[in-house]
Amino acid sequence: MKKTTCFLLFLWLAGGILQAQTLAPERRSGELIVQIQPGKQVGTVLADLNRSTGITFTVKQTLAADWHMYLLQYPEQQDQAADVLQKVRRVRDIVLAQYNSKVQERSLEPNDTEWWRQGDMTFIKAPEMWAATTGGLTPAGDTIVIAVLEKGALMTHPDLAPNRFWNWHDIPGNDIDDDGNGYTDDFGGWNPQTFADDMGTKGYHGTAVNGIIGARGNNQQGISGINWTVKLLNVAGMDYESEIIQGYQYVGKMRKQYNQTNGAKGAFVVATNASFGFDEEFAEDHPVWCALYDSLGKLGVLSVGATSNANVNVDEKGDMPTSCTSEYLITVTNITKAGSKVFLAGYGSMSIDLGAPGSDTYSTFNSGGQNNDIPSYGIIGGCSAAAPHVTGSIGLLYSLDCEPFTSDATSNPTVCARRVRDAILLNVEPNETLNGITSTGGHLNLSNALASVRELCKGAKVGPLEILEVQTSAEGNKFRVFYQTPLFQAYNFRVFNMLGQLMYEQEINPQQFSENYIDFETYYWPAGVYVMSIGRGDVVKSRKFPKI
Fold first, then answer.
1. Which ranges constitute the DSSP H helices of 232-306?
2. How confident is residue 432, by pLDDT bands cut at 50, 70 and 90?
3. Does 337 score more than 80 pLDDT?
């Protein structure tokens, strides 16, 4: 997909995401939360409220007597809630009024039917990352592609098919290299054994690995991958090292062409996954294979490798590819969803970088039929399942809406790849069972990685709802209010005079990767003291300020 087309799609998707984030929160019908003026009796205020609105309100509960906050109820009629709220806010002696809304969690969980089985995703804090991004595109509009090197996968699986990569610059079946990348009819990937784009013998292993990386999320079926949307480029048919080298070369060709044509051709491959290898083999005996990782890294492609499913010290016993020393290769061992290293999993303080959950991972599967083509779901284990958690995380990081983080992805791909790698490796969760036997001493934590990117972009301060600072212009008629929130969803900002009259109101939508503030003007307001508030649901923060 061309970069310009991707950018238009990015705008469309971003609009949909923003719209989803700004939907009004769930509220309890017929309930309002109010704060009354200090020194006033709630019964007196309630009588005045009922008289002025013509609606019968009663006190359902005293929420905070010291702060004069009460939960009111009334017989709500259909579609009258907004009108009632405005009437209540105009009543004398009512300082603040709002709906009784249900606060949403900061994390985002998909609606996939088998999500409850995916403890691996919650363990690595994927829902916290999903609140910021679910994958798909870079801020510049590049379609993110992850290359999966496997013997075969059922890419017609309904949870994988929507995310399959297609090389739209090649015409399938015409025996012509239409896009000039050196490969004929590579419309749906590449198979070095057949010199075509078929997936070869379809096995559950490849299908499961693809599902961990990029099963379509939030589609009300099956599972969710690390990326809800991403393009999965499958390179199949690799039994020998010669075929492995050819597979990696194909990936390199596609990314190189993308860099050189500014996205007009090729594919924006950001990572490769290899859940295969050789036990007790040293890098020095496979120098050509190892050299591939530096070559891919220079193009901007990080690679991820699974280590041995044996309790061996890879530094001493060897393993391929995880004993390769390339800085662009991230090596992964297997831990449980409780955070402990699996006994039958390789380790090494120099060779193995981090752990990720692999045991008992629920993912996409296939079985039966003449061609092993019946889609299903099942359990995969071992380091083969641990590695794709990290591979998928690379793709997800590229989609964060932090322009400085990946702005040089095509102009300086090597530096960008290192930056993404560091976001993962420098922000692991410390893990006692990995300390001293991996280079980082920790396991994958997407929440930590997200925080590091937000800091790089001088992004939003995250914490309990708070008004941090109020700045005033020299003439005293313009105000800028800096704030922090625990959620990146819609909040209400309001300003009242000391009679409780609403003077200004605005819905605000905190952004993850920019400083959050509100600007408003008070040119025609009389001098005096005012109250500003930011709130969502029953959580409200207020602050007085003078207008000279």
1. 241-260, 287-299
2. very high
3. yes
Q: How do residues 311-334 score in pLDDT, each as one tens digit? A: 999 999 999 999 999 999 999 999
Long-range CB contacts (within 8 A, 24+) of 255-258: 255/296, 255/299, 255/300, 255/301, 255/413, 256/299, 257/179, 257/180, 257/181, 258/410
In whole angstroms, give the CA distance from residue 405 to residue 56. Answer: 55
Do residues 441 and 453 make contact, with C-beta atoms less than 8 angstroms apart? Answer: no
Mapping DSSP onto H, E and C, the string for 201-250 reads CCCHHHHHHHHHHHCCCCCCCCCCCCCCCCEEEEECCCCCHHHHHHHHHH
What does the alpha-carbon distance between residue 172 and residue 456 come to, in Å, rounded to a whole number?
Answer: 43
Instruction: Locate 168 and state its tokens.
Output: 């739209």
Each residue of 434-453: b (16+ CB within 10 Å) or e?
Answer: beebbbbbbbbbbbbbbbbb
Residue 252 confidence (pLDDT): 96
221 near 158, Cβ under 8 Å? Answer: yes
- Could you tell me if 33 and 70 are in contact, meaning their C-beta atoms sit under 8 angstroms apart? yes
Tokens 């001088």 sit on residue: 458
What is the token pair recorded at 71? 């939960």
Domains and CATH numbers, the chain: 26-102 (3.30.70.60), 115-405+414-456 (3.40.50.200), 460-548 (2.60.40.3080)
Is 380 within 8 Å of 411 (Cβ atoms)?
Answer: no
Query: Pairing mode, if any, of strands 231-235 and 374-380?
Result: unpaired
Q: Nearest CA to 516 among 545, 548, 480, 541?
A: 480
Structure tokens at 122: 């919650």
Torsion, CA 224, CA 421, CA 457, CA 540, rounded to 10: 40
By residue count, the chain amounts to 548
pLDDT tens figures, 82-112: 889 999 999 989 998 888 875 544 456 889 8
What tokens does 274 get? 């290899």
Assess contact for 511 and 133: CB atoms under 8 A: no
Structure tokens at 493: 């900002």
Rama region for 531: left / alpha / beta (φ>0; ψ in -120 to 50; rest) = beta
Which amino acid does the sequence have at 94?
I
